[in-house]
Amino acid sequence: MSIERLSTGVEGFDKLIQGGIPRGFFVAVVGEPGTGKTIFSIHFIAEGIRVGDKNIYVTTEESKESIIKQAAMFGFDFERAIREGKLVIIDALMGYRDDPWSLVELDVDHLVNKIIEAKKYLGYGRARLVIDSMSAFWLDKPAMARRYSYYVKRVLYRWDFTALLTSQYAVTTSLGFGFGIEHVADGIIRFRKGIVRGELRRYVIIEKMRQTEHSLRMHEIEIINGRGMRIKAPTAYRKEDTVLPTSVAARMLAAELRKLLEIPETEHDEEN
Ligand SMILES: Nc1ncnc2c1ncn2[C@@H]1O[C@H](COP(=O)(O)OP(=O)(O)OP(=O)(O)O)[C@@H](O)[C@H]1O
Ligand SMILES: [Mg+2]
After folding, report:
1. What is the whole-number distance in angstroms between the Cα of residue 51 and the centre of ligand 1?
2. Which of 83, 131, 169, 203 sees the fewest Cβ atoms within 10 Å?
3. Residue 121 belongs to what domain range?
4. Is 105 domain-assigned?
5. 31 in ligand 1 pocket by Cβ < 6 Å?
6. Spacing, Cα 70 to ligand 1 middle (Å)
7. Ligand nearest to the CA of 176
8. Would you say the pTM of this structure is higher than 0.85?
9. Rounded distance from Cα 2 to ligand 2 centre (Å)
10. Considering its fold, how many domains does the chain have in total?
11. pLDDT tens across 41-70, in order?
């Protein structure tokens, strides 16, 4: 039996998963801040635009403009795709009341309805969906993570989506907020980072991909201006490759907390 697979559009990645993500799968894309989840998702959507799929990108942590700009840095014209009716970006950050594709409330029911509306607008056929990130929907109620993830999958499954759902990992513990989508997901793509001899390195490992004989190795990745993400050679696992020095981790955690609590950065933080 052959399985239809969707290319991720990331150079060197598809061959780690027998050619691509099986159609209809809901895949969790997880990792600490800045590890490449959004950029990976952008590639997935850009590939969808290229091959004529219907594409929906829900953004909760960055504005629609920010996603468009980030895509443009790698040569993907998302503005044009939107104009041509190939892509809908649902902005759940800015909550513009005059934009029909804005999500005014961070609520899972609203989200699902908006996605279905967008799919109807784009039309019949194979579709790609990114929800970046799912964590935003359960920040204040982490215990709901699993139930929400299940609900989203159960309702959207019928609409011919192959989906990437991103989720952040707390830097200190590497545990997911709410620990929800991993169990519900058909696949887990885990991004990591570490500092090796004073240099930030990024890695990816496929922790789960149903119906797939996938790579079990951790691969280093590269993000190149003008080109985007690329998979490099597999890496031997070393603790020092993925563990951040405590001082760096503390600063990142502080920054994350500030982001959550919406406290502006102070000069004091800069000095530390
Ligand atoms: N044009 C570019 N050229 C090279 N590297 C870039 C470029 N744009 C972004 N990056 C790198 O990608 C990183 C951001 O990656 P990305 O937004 O995918 O992270 P993320 O995992 O989604 O993080 P978060 O959880 O905070 O959303 C930046 O910190 C930077 O290192
Ligand atoms: Mg992101």
Report:
1. 25
2. 83
3. 5-238
4. yes
5. yes
6. 9
7. 1
8. yes
9. 33
10. 1
11. 999 999 999 999 999 999 999 999 999 999
